Amino acid sequence: MIEKYFGTQRLPKKNLRYIIVPAALILSVLAMSTSSASLAEYDLSFLAQFGTFFLSILIQAFPFLLAGTLLSSIIGEFVPRHAMEHLLGKSPIIAVPASIVCAFLFPVCDCASVPVAARLADKNVPPAAVVTFMLASPIINPVVILSTMYAFPEHRSFVWSRIAIGILVPVLAGLIIQKFLSHSGVGILSPKDNEHHAHDETGCACGHCEHDHDETHADSNASFVSRIARTLAHTGEEFIKVSPYIIVGAAVSASIQTALPKDVFASFGGGTGIAVQTLIMMGAAFLLSVCSTSDAFIARGFLFSFAPAPIIAFITAGPMIDIKNVLMMTPYFRKRFIVLLASLIFILVFISIMILSMTVFGGVE
């Protein structure tokens, strides 16, 4: 019964390295650190701190990841390809504004937006709209907007600036990538994920992949229960496929937060220009990988060390691109696309913050 509804895929052996390598690295560092002292005399409080950060990231990420993979599977099973093309259109002029509306309506963080965006790309949604949805949904959805308002009740400009940049940067990045792809002729999906259901060396074990899934939509003999079963099976497949990447991202982020607490970043704030502060905050957002639903409360702690504009950079760049997000995109999208997207996000956010600082917050000095 469990295999029927949730699939039989297990963690592929090739993905075990994503768990074994970080664990071996941590154990090696611990062994070298304790070589000159007995384990009983060594202060292991940093391990407790690492565990706290690591578990907090996973607890925040896994529910959204499960929601994203479930939504992705529902789209794949119940929404025909031609329906998505009809709804969003093939032109970015129509698809991009529609994707912004969808980004506002779906309260997901960056962990959930990646698999949904990959499914939209598989449904022939224009790349500009896919990128816009993936980058905007973790920023402009109601949950994140309300959390930002609650974190900065006396700074409503932070809220409106986050929303504006959360729309502007995704749209520009999407249109630039669409233009780039029109010349290169290369898609954004990874070759391994370019079919509707990705197969690795373990094969698809959901038991329903002997045929194309879009043909399934036209199969009048398929019962609703069987389609629900396929949806749950593919949800399990997707969740297992991307879980190792988010575990590694959480481990890396937790390691950085343990070794470099936020006070380290705050110490660089005083006496530096807006441009340098912006780069520091964008780097901190990338390294710390805080969920977009709670990053505003982390950013509030920087108010006394950084100018307003760099803090806005922290809460806009982070949800679009961070360590766990990059690793999440790896099984779905081409590496060239990920590099181009990350570069565009950093450049566009930096330019937006400089303009915001000059027009709203009184200069870049």
Notes on the structure:
There is one protein chain. The protein is mostly helical and 365 residues long. The protein has one domain. It is built from 17 helices and no strands. Helix 7 (127-140) runs antiparallel to helix 9, helix 13 packs parallel to helix 15 (308-320) and helix 15 (308-320) packs antiparallel against helix 17 (335-359). The protein starts with a helix and ends in a 6-residue tail after the last helix.
Any chance you could write out the topology, listing elements then pairs?
Elements (H helix, E strand, L loop, with lengths): L1 H5 L10 H17 L11 H34 L2 H8 L3 H14 L4 H13 L4 H14 L1 H10 L4 H29 L28 H5 L6 H36 L2 H6 L6 H15 L6 H6 L7 H13 L2 H7 L5 H25 L6
Uncertain runs with pLDDT below 50, 5 residues or more?
A: 1-12, 33-37, 196-220
Q: Report the strand count.
A: 0
- Which class of secondary structure composition applies to the elements? mainly alpha
Principal-axis shape equals globular
The largest sheet is: none
Please bin the fraction of helical residues: over 70%
Counting DSSP H or I runs of 4 or more residues, the number of helices is: 17
Radius of gyration: 22 Å
Euclidean distance between termini CA atoms: 64 Å
User: How much strand content do the residues show?
Assistant: under 5%
Total separate domains:
1
